[in-house]
Amino acid sequence: MELRHLQYFKRVAELEHLTKAANELYITQSHLSHVIIELETELGVKLFDRVGRGVRLNPCGREFYHDVARLFYEYEDAKKKAQDNFKRQSTQVTIVTNVSTYIPGLLKKNKQDSPSLNIQQYSAKRRKIIRMLMNGDADFAICCPILTEEPELESILLHLEKGVVIYPENHWLEEHKSVSFAQIKAENFISVGVGFGTRDMQDAYFREAGILVNSSVETTDTSSIYYFVKAGLGIALAPKTMTLLNTDFKNQFVEIDEGPLATIGLTWRKDHYLSEAGKAFFETTKNYFGELSAYI
Fold it and tell me: How far is residue 208 from each of residues 30, 94, 107, 212, measured CA to CA in Å?
């Protein structure tokens, strides 16, 4: 049985006239009659009673028609959903990140390069980022450190980031161009939660130095650390590139003597279909972080 058999049957059932149905379907009446006979033979039941030159649905035919009509309604709904999904894929990308401080500039760059592109952005901890990628809830992730845990995921390095210490006005760090971890270990730190990029970078720094940090404020938004520091609530480890682009802190930070570089990567599922929107986002994101790297 082919779909056309059901299409032909449906129209004959609605018109109860072979000639009219054949004309609408742009086929000969003899061919249409042959198709109906094939369908009845496959089902093993008669669907129509012949009445003079016309046909009329019998009880089996009426029941079969209701099921076929419902099938075509569901098919049309499925087709519309597929078309709508294709349209969304052509214009929409969903990203998730644990370093949201980079995202406003990235979204601005994407809007300039692809004005019709709609980006949905979520912030999440590292474990949830992996889960969203694996479940297909996100097309891409921008993560620090770069994701390497899952073989089903593919990552590229976007940027090597250097950490600096930002401080509020009238802080003793104003007299320094660089500091060691030992010099700042007693300070109150503004931090983001474990699993977010800035925090993971900070913990890696301090583990290497063997120092326990006193966190006075913990937030889930990496970009908000600048506001807490500006309010005088403590100091914070921040990405150097974002600090140089921040009008309040571009001259209000110190280098860390022994600070290593952190990795920021773009990750996606290997078997994920890359739409035209996804390809545009991919290229713009590489270019954006390439430009940021010039600041290091």
Answer: 85, 35, 34, 11
